[in-house]
Amino acid sequence: MIGPRRERHALSFEELDALALPVADDGVVIGVDSGGRPAVLGLNRPTAYDVTLVGGLWTAQVVALRAAATGARVAVETGRAPAWTALARSAGGGQQCVTLHEVGRVPPQGASAGSPVLVVRDCGMRPPRGRVVAGPWQSVLTLLPYLSPAAPRLLEQSALVGVQRVSPDEAEQIGRLMNLPRSAVDALPTLGDGVTLWCTGRDRQFVMTQGTEAELGLLGAARRID
Asked: How many angstroms separate the CA atoms of 165 and 152, rounded?
């Protein structure tokens, strides 16, 4: 059967640019950069990926929720389970995609390309060395509420470091550890709630994370201090 006939659509060579699509790494949208563009954190990787966040529980929980929304399983190692209980119950629409574990008791997760895992370590100022470490399709995010003696080791080992508002003294230390420019060091003590400086050995980007309506209803407004 001959279907309905449509006029052909044609573009000139000069008009082809209008069809360009933004293509970037897939992952978790953690906010917007200074230009208002989406900032994406690629957590599901075939190689080990360690992330350290010197910041608040709120931001770590938003990352966990959004990772779960992309299909990752989230294992939370924490000494303050009550702070994570509501999130674990609400995530996944009834499916257990976020599990809570005592410090040092995270079992092997069996991560794979079809079932990637994010391990969130919320273990205080001096997190012990984890039994479950980053590996193929299993990323590890370590949350530090403030700078601590464990921070230099963690920052050095991490592929990505996030820093939220810290004291001027902490900003100076982080600046030396991460080789930050003076402007970034001066900005760290003044950052608003929900703003994070994400940096690697070469790149740095300020990102504003704003909760969705569902996230705000579950976690409350963005905050640096818990």
From this structure: 18
What predicted TM-score, i.e. pTM, was given to this entire model? 0.86
Task: Print pLDDT tens along the chain (226 aa).
Answer: 454 454 554 555 555 444 443 334 468 999 999 899 999 999 999 999 999 999 999 999 999 999 999 999 999 999 999 999 999 999 866 678 999 999 999 999 999 999 999 999 999 999 988 788 999 999 999 999 999 888 999 999 999 999 999 999 999 999 999 999 999 999 999 999 999 999 998 899 999 999 999 999 999 999 998 8
